[in-house]
Write a structure and sequence with these properties.
Elements: H1 2-18, H2 31-57, H3 65-80, H4 82-86, H5 100-103, H6 105-129, H7 131-134, H8 144-150
Helix pairs in contact: 2-3, 3-6
The protein binds heme C.
């Protein structure tokens, strides 16, 4: 009797394993949602690094050469990721991206590149002349120049 029960259990398990039913896959994220999550995620990462530099600028955080260079380099890499991250124009309601991004793509990319260059300059100045000389350049970050025309 025990043996029969065991066999039935084994058959149920094997049938289940080969049935293709799976609970391992998370619910699918739509293309639209995926595109938005990428854009929004990159922007929040940018904000976090810019915040570190901003705090150094206003004296809320100790001026630290290594940390300044690291944050500036991180920002440079992230601004360079804007074109590939925004390439997908798929839209969801909660996105603040304006259609103008894809209508004026070259200008949009140029705005991102402008901030990438400033980040590189901050990192280079920090490396050569130190944090005190470089920190004033943080004022040049004008996120609004892009948010104005391209964010709702
Ligand atoms: C090249 C254009 C561009 C630049 C440069 C840019 N942003 Fe954005 N940002 C956008 C767009 C477009 C969105 C909306 C994306 C969406 O919702 O799909 C956005 C969204 C955000 C968000 C998400 C939350 C919100 O309010 O929508 C934050 C935070 C953010 N940006 C911070 C910054 C900061 C800080 C800087 C400058 C250091 C910056 N961005 C520079 C285009 C830009």
């Amino acid at each position: 009797m025990k043996r029969i029960k065991f066999n039935i259990l084994a058959i149920v398990i094997i049938t289940f394993l080969f049935s293709g039913i799976s609970f391992a896959h998370p619910p699918a994220i739509s293309d639209e949602m995926g595109a938005y999550i990428k854009r929004d995620g990159l922007m929040h990462l940018i904000r976090a690094q810019r915040y570190i530099l901003q705090e150094m600028l206003v004296g809320k955080r100790e001026l630290d050469q290594k940390e300044l260079i690291r944050a500036a380099k991180a920002l440079s890499a992230m601004f360079a990721m804007i074109p590939s991250t925004f390439e997908n124009s798929a839209m969801v309601d909660m996105s603040r991206a304006k259609p103008e991004i894809w209508e004026n793509w070259d200008d949009f990319v140029a705005q991102a590149d402008e901030l990438r260059k400033i980040s590189d300059e901050i990192a280079a100045m920090g490396e050569i002349y130190g944090a005190e000389a470089a920190i004033e350049k943080v004022r040049l970050f004008n996120c609004g120049a892009c948010h104005g025309p391209y964010r709702k």
